[in-house]
Structures are given as structure tokens and as C-alpha cells.
Amino acid sequence: MATFYCPNCWRWSPTVQEHCPACGYALADYHGLSYDERLVRAVRHPVRENRMIAVELLGKRRYAPAVAVFVDLLSKERDYYTIREVARALRRIDTAESCAVLDRLRCHSSPLVRALLEEPCTQ
Question: How many helices (H) and strands (E) does the chain have?
Fold first, then answer.
């Protein structure tokens, strides 16, 4: 059985509907978004693997507007693997803003995260 999530509020639904029963979001609006905008929304997906794929693709595409979304994700995220993927994406994006976020991550409470960021950012 397939699982469907609203691309706006990420509530689960057993079937695809025109409007989300939880938040009223129109699925047609989602289809009008660019690929990058869809990936940015997927960074908030409730399934970790889907979030990580979206983060990886945004990094590979060097999509600088995603940095603000990554900052928000990092303020809540505790999973090392997701944080690692965000750090990789920030390195690929390689803007002054992404490097500033990486510099802040160097003080992270996790020794694994700090070890990941031993190399300085190139920007």
C-alpha cells in the first residue's frame, strides 16, 4: 500500500486528494512549483531518508536558497547522518552564507559533527 503525504504540512493520508484534509493545501499548487522548490519542501519530509535525498540533491544542484532551510533543519535535527548530509550540501553550495553555517557547526555538541568539519571551508 502506498503512503501519501501532503507536500505542505506533511500529514499522512491513505489516498491522494485534491486538497489536504489537514491544512487545505491544493495539490495543483504543488505541481506548479519548480523542481528546486519541491526539493526544498522535501527537506521537511517526515521520513529521514527522503529528507536526506532532498538535501543531497539540493547540494549537488548548488541551490543557494536552500541554505536558509538547512539552517532551520539544523536547529531541530539531532540525527548525525542528516547533519552530515547537510554539511556536505553546504560545502557544495559554497557561498559565504553556507560557509558561515559550516563554521557554526564546528562548535556542535557532537564530536562526530565536529570531526566531519575539521577541514576549513574554501569560501
Answer: 7, 2
Let me know if 6 is exposed, middle or buried by CB neighbors in 10 A (0-12, 13-18, 19+): buried
**Quick one: pLDDT at residue 121?**
61
Predicted local confidence at residue 12, as pLDDT: 87
Beta bridge partner(s), residue 19: 26
pTM of the predicted protein model: 0.86
Give the range of the structural domain holding residue 56, as residue numbers without chain letter.
Answer: 33-116
Pairing verdict, β 4-5 and 12-13: antiparallel
Q: What are the tens digits of pLDDT across the range 25-83?
A: 998 999 899 999 999 999 999 999 999 999 999 999 999 999 999 999 999 999 999 99
How far apart are the C-alpha atoms of 111 and 9, rounded to whole Å?
33
Is 39 contained in some domain? yes
51 lies in some domain? yes
DSSP result, 30-69? HHTS-HHHHHHHHTT-SSHHHHHHHHHHHHHTT-TTHHHH
How many structural domains is the chain composed of? 1
